[in-house]
Structures are given as structure tokens and as C-alpha cells.
């Protein structure tokens, strides 16, 4: 649904210097997925959004959204192609002087949908986001979470193939964040829309994303389905999504080392109890652990302690059983 291939965006500054905001970025998001893009400030997230929506042309590389090569379109075609992308912003950016229903109708009016048929769509969208009875309210009469619901209804009104959410929950409290993320998932399930969430919050990825990419200095340095990313203990995303349990050095016996084990519940993979009994057979003990469900995957992290002399044998035995394990540095 979304495909970026080797996208570069170079800005020329007035003093002659250049900034490589995107530096060979490649990204694939399949139809119907909820994909998170995370990265620290300056990594290129906003530039990526502007290239996806064709507000900016990449210096080189290809951006395809819903089958369209965004750089190859005429201005008229581009206007049409942009309708395939619904945008949700950090602050809902509603028009204060218009009612909720009028805000949701706005993109339909811009797209030339006749007034008569707008009403039914607007009501359907407001029902979808749980605000079916608030069509006559003004933004000032809504909570932050409700405003964001209206923002989502507005983004979906023109039936986009892609919902592009730029820091959609950064201004919300944790409880409201949870409900907005649930709504986004619900919308994806019901409408089959492809969702990209740009965020700096790992908790957002944990709660709602099927897959994730880590953006750094204008390129994707790690990417994959959540299950795959979290089961690779050596990956940075994995550490941030499910941190390994802390084991204070002082609590270790003098010759013990720590083994980090990552578990994901998939058919055919050894379950936690099996791993623990294998560990015990190898003379290892459990020093800490965490288990949780991320999207459709169950993931766990175990920190095992084992005498250094038995570490390689324990690692080999666990790997032999299909367990992802590494000795902690
Ligand atoms: N119009 C521009 N002209 C020059 N440099 C720019 C322009 N837009 C972005 N940049 C630079 O490109 C790099 C990436 O910026 P971008 O805004 O895409 O990052 P970001 O990940 O969205 O950061 P943040 O999370 O702080 O918004 C930064 O070094 C930024 O200074």
C-alpha cells in the first residue's frame, strides 16, 4: 500500500550548507497494517510525512501510495491522489467556528461531494468514532480526546486508503491515549484502512502497531513485524519495546554471567515453562522476567544467571531448542 524506495531529501541552507533530512529511506507498509514509525527529534519523521503526502518532492527515490507514484503525478492527479491519504494531527486542528458535523464535512465539501450526500457520510463517521450525538457541538465544547475523535472522523470521511497519524496521542493523557489507539485499531478492522503512526512514544507502538520502523538520520535502521522485532534481543527497538529485566551487578555471584532470553509465543516455539526447565537443566537461574502481549504476539524477557564456565553450553542448548538468547555484555 505504501512503498518508499531509496528516498533522499536534501535541503540547501542559505549559507550553502546542505541537510540530508532523508538519506536513502526505504519502507514498505502492506495494506491493512498499522505501522509505527519511531525516531528521535531530527530523524526525519516530518519530512517523511511531507514526502508521503507530496507536500514536498523527494530529491531522489520513489514514493508510492495506493499504487500511485506521487512524484510522477500532474497537479490535478496529485489532488486526487492526496484524497487517498487521511491525516490525523497531534492537535486535532478543528475549525473552532464550525460544528463537529461541519468539521467532518469539510474535506467532502473540498472534494466536491454534493451537500445532500454529505450528511449521511458525516453521521456515519461520527457514529464510527462514538460521537453520533455530538454533531451540533462546537470544538470548545469537546474534551481533547473527543476533538481527536472528530479529527479521525474528518480524516476518514473521504474514504482514504491510508490514515496517516502524526503524533496522534502526544497531547493526550494515558487513559485517553488508550481509547484513541483502540479507536484507530477498530477503524482499521472495520474499514480495512492502512494506518501509519508517526510517534516518539514506544508505548503507542506497544499498544497498537502490527509492525514498526526505527528512523535514524533520515534512514530506516530497523524494521519489521512487532513479533519479529521483539524476538531479536540484539535490536534497539526490541530493547525499547520490551526492556530486559535489570540485574544489578552486586546481586551476581562473582563468577556468574547474565543471559538475556527473548520469547515470543508462536506455534512451535518453546513456551516459557519449557525454557525455564531447560535453563534449570543447564544450571541457570531466573534473575528477572517480564511477560506481556503486544498486538497479537505474546512476548517475554528473561534474565538468567549462570556460572561463566557453563554459559556457552547453556546458550548452545537454549539455541538448539529454538530460543533467542545472548550473553549480556
Ligand atoms: N525546510 C527545511 N529546511 C532545512 N532543513 C530542514 C527543513 N525541514 C527539515 N530540515 C532538517 O531535516 C532534518 C529532519 O527534520 P524533521 O523535521 O523531518 O525531523 P523530525 O524527526 O520530524 O523531528 P521532530 O521530531 O523534532 O519534529 C533536521 O535536521 C531538520 O533540521
UniProtKB/TrEMBL annotation:
The keyword Nucleotide-binding is annotated on this UniProt entry: yes
InterPro entries from the UniProt entry = AAA+_ATPase, ABC_transporter-like_ATP-bd, ABC_transporter-like_CS, MetN_ABC, MetN_ABC_transporter-like, P-loop_NTPase
The ABC transporter domain extends over 2-242
Q: Name one GO biological process term.
A: amino acid transport
Keyword entries, A-Z: Amino-acid transport, ATP-binding, Cell membrane, Hydrolase, Membrane, Nucleotide-binding, Translocase, Transport
Cited SMART domains: AAA (SM00382)
Pfam families with a match to the protein in the record: ABC_tran
| Class of enzymatic activity (EC top level) | hydrolase
- Name a single GO cellular component: plasma membrane
Q: Which domain of life is it from?
A: Bacteria
Q: What is its EC number?
A: 3.6.3.-
One Gene Ontology MF term: ATP binding
Listed under subunit, the entry gives: Homodimer. Forms a membrane-associated complex with FtsX.
Q: Which family does it belong to?
A: Belongs to the ABC transporter superfamily.
User: What does the record give as the function of this protein?
Assistant: Part of the ABC transporter FtsEX involved in cellular division. Has ATPase activity.
- Record-given protein name: Methionine import ATP-binding protein MetN
| Organism of derivation | Actinomyces howellii
Amino acid at each position: 500500500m505504501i512503498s518508499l524506495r531509496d528516498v533522499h531529501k536534501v535541503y540547501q541552507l542559505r549559507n550553502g550548507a546542505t541537510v540530508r533530512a532523508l538519506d536513502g529511506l526505504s519502507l514498505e507498509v502492506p495494506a491493512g497494517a498499522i505501522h509505527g514509525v519511531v525516531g528521535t527529534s531530527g530523524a526525519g519523521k516530518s519530512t517523511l510525512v511531507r514526502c508521503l503526502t507530496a507536500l514536498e518532492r523527494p530529491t531522489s527515490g520513489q514514493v508510492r501510495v495506493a499504487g500511485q507514484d506521487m512524484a510522477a503525478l500532474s497537479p490535478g492527479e496529485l489532488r486526487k491522489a492526496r484524497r487517498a491519504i487521511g491525516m490525523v494531527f497531534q492537535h486535532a486542528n478543528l475549525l473552532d467556528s464550525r460544528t463537529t458535523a461541519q468539521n467532518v464535512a469539510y474535506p467532502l465539501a473540498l472534494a466536491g461531494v454534493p451537500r445532500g450526500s454529505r450528511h449521511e457520510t458525516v453521521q456515519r463517521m461520527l457514529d464510527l468514532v462514538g460521537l453520533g450525538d455530538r454533531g451540533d457541538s462546537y470544538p470548545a465544547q469537546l474534551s481533547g480526546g473527543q476533538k481527536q475523535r472528530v479529527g479521525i472522523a474528518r480524516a476518514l470521511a473521504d474514504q482514504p486508503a491510508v490514515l496517516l497519524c502524526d503524533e496522534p496521542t502526544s497531547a493526550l493523557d494515558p487513559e485517553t491515549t488508550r481509547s484513541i489507539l483502540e479507536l484507530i485499531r477498530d477503524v482499521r478492522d472495520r474499514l480495512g484502512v492502512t494506518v501509519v503512526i508517526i510517534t516518539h512514544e514506544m508505548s503507542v507502538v506497544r499498544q497498537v502497531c502490527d509492525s514498526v520502523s526505527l528512523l535514524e538520520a533520515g534512514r530506516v535502521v530497523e524494521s519489521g513485524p512487532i513479533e519479529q522485532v521483539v524476538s531479536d534481543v540484539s535490536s534497539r527497538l526490541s530493547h525499547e519495546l520490551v526492556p530486559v529485566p535489570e540485574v544489578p551487578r552486586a546481586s551476581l555471584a562473582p563468577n556468574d554471567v547474565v543471559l538475556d532470553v527473548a520469547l515470543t509465543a508462536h506455534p512451535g516455539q518453546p513456551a516459557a515453562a519449557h525454557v525455564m526447565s531447560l535453563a534449570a537443566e543447564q544450571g541457570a537461574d531466573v534473575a528477572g522476567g517480564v511477560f506481556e502481549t503486544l498486538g497479537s504476539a505474546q512476548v517475554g524477557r528473561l534474565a538468567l544467571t549462570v556460572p561463566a564456565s557453563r554459559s556457552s553450553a547453556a546458550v548452545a542448548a537454549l539455541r538448539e531448542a529454538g530460543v533467542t538468547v545472548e550473553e549480556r555484555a
